[in-house]
Give the backbone structure.
Amino acid sequence: MKTFKLGGVHPNDNKLSRDAKIEVFAVPQVAYVSMAQHLGAPAKPVVAQGDKVKVGDMIAVGEAFISANIHSPVSGTVDKIDEWIDASGYKTPAIIIKVEGDEWNESIDRSPDIIKDIRLTDPKDIIAKIKEMGVVGLGGAAFPTHVKFMIPEGKKADYLIINAVECEPYLTADHRVLLEHGEKLLIGTRILRIALGVDKAYIGIENNKPDAIAHLTELAAKDFKDIEIVPLKMKYPQGAEKQLIKAITGREVPSGKLPIDVGCVVNNSGSTYSVYEAVQKNKPLFERVVTVTGKTVKKPSNFLVRVGTPIKELIAAVDADLEHTGKIVSGGPMMGKALVNTDVPVVKGTSGVLLFHEMESCRPASHNCIRCGKCVEACPMGLEPFFLSAAIDKELWDRVEAHHIMDCLECGCCQFTCPSNRPLVDYLRTGKKVVGQMIRNRAKK
Amino acid sequence: MNQILIISVVALTSIGVVAAIILYVAAKKFHVEEDERIGKVVELLPGANCGGCGFAGCKSLAEAIVKAGNMEGLHCPAGGNETMAKIADVLGIAAEEATPQVAVVRCSGSIKNAPAKIEYDGITSCAFANSLSSGETGCRYGCLGLGDCVKGCSFGAISISEETGLPVVDYDKCGGCGGCARRCPRGIIEVRNRGPKDRRVFVSCINAEKGAVAKKNCAVACIGCGKCVKVCPFGAITLDKNHAYIDFTKCKMCLKCVAECPTGAIHAVNFPVKKTEEIS
């Protein structure tokens, strides 16, 4: 079975919500729709205060090259165009909509039938549709999907890889989509394959999801000969773009380059499903599957949630033991972000809400580095976190840059494996920020 | 035995002599003529290499002063006018007076005034904590209290108070070089004029949040009510982004704003405590 070679760790996968079917979550009373829920420039609101909107109406347009449109997840009245907190507690521009009923835009096809014949055949039309429907990567970084498929001149794509790895422990949102919407996902994959102009697509799935592998392999053998299901040996961070490319194709993305430089385009499985809905059903991306799980949750669940729903409503629905919850994380335990407030709304990139028990969440005391080299062994990018963290502490930015800090994924393998419990990722993130700024300043000059 | 001793002593001595000759020749040949006054000026400067003068270190400033032959625009804030006068004496040029400055911390969100709502357990670095979240108090403009400013100070003039969790400036040691202000990721520390008799009035808050939100996070926040702007007879106070700012060049220290401020966000430093009238 395939996997990537360099580094990686094996955290316990803790997929508590593995068997919980996707439930449609109640529409919130008030939706807080952030304008900066994707990577790149924030979207610009095109509605005004007091406007009536229906589900699926475009409420903000992404004008910059890297940006995405945003559609109303609810029907009702625009209450305010203001600011609202994001996961880090800072404020970002947001449209706040008071919900009245649940009236959908008529152009959305709400029938449950699966449409197999692909409506659009020209790659340009497909990409335009994806852009119009505001589809972004649902893995966490929320990179606008249409930008990925606009291949720069002089470069050629050889492989389309669908990332259904879901290597983060606890999260099962993608897993449930594979099981419950397998066929739609395969149609979505075919649409993307046509958009990219390649002959074959690969779907990478880790072997901790044998049911999904079996289900999709069966479907692919029947009707989808152009799609290959690739089972992968479980290892974290296999879901990282560069690691997945290495595992499936054997190609290595050089430092500072993009996947397209080695002829690969990687797309998340959840967003591939959204591509199906966008192209075949004319449905914009305004709801997504969110896993709500953790050791203090009595009923770990997978919900189909409208974007803009406050996270506290999700927590209220799973019967959690809040008294013993130490930390609430948006995303997975390895790369997720601890929330400062549960008023934070669900955004397109929210893959899960994780409640840590207070015993799990406390950081053990950190000790001096003993130069054991475990972090070097674990780093999937071949970096030396022990050296980098020391250099960052001493602020030797030139050396930090020379040791390829910008390649760091912030995947957390180094910190996970460190026997001295050193906060390595904290240092690396600080370093990345400073060095990134240095590089940008240099480019300006 | 004796022979070995003699050989080694002679060999080492001759190597030493040869090396000395080479070094002597090299020193003569590659000698760089340096103005000896630079050395004298460097001795007078504080030697902390704080960078407050705008140069990389004390020696660079000394070179610049000697080269320019005057002190226009060249000033050591850490050493102050006293040091500059001494340097002027040595070089035989006119000393230029600069207004003495000092760093002030424009946040009063202490543990008591702005209680923590969440717990931060990452590394002790304001720069990192700032990039990660809005902070423990919920105020996204306030002091994080992790001491980046302490690391930025070359004179040991700033420290984090255990009682309040905020930086405290030791005004005797601070020369106003701005090392701390450059380090602060939120721009809370400002270098201001020391003021007459070392007295200063400043707004100890920089939050740009609307009044109600600011007050919710911190009891002593500036809520941008504008009362101080109205009461100021000198037009020294401006209101921008929901907080007031006192221009220290215009402020005449009348203290009317301090009395007017409803939240106590305006601080007056080094003023004598007013005598209360005795009840007769």
Q: What stands out?
A: The interface with chain A takes residues 117-118, 121-123, 125, 127-128, 131-135, 138, 140 of chain B (CB under 8 Å). Chain B has three domains: 36-91, 100-194, 195-280. DSSP finds ten helices and eight strands in chain B.
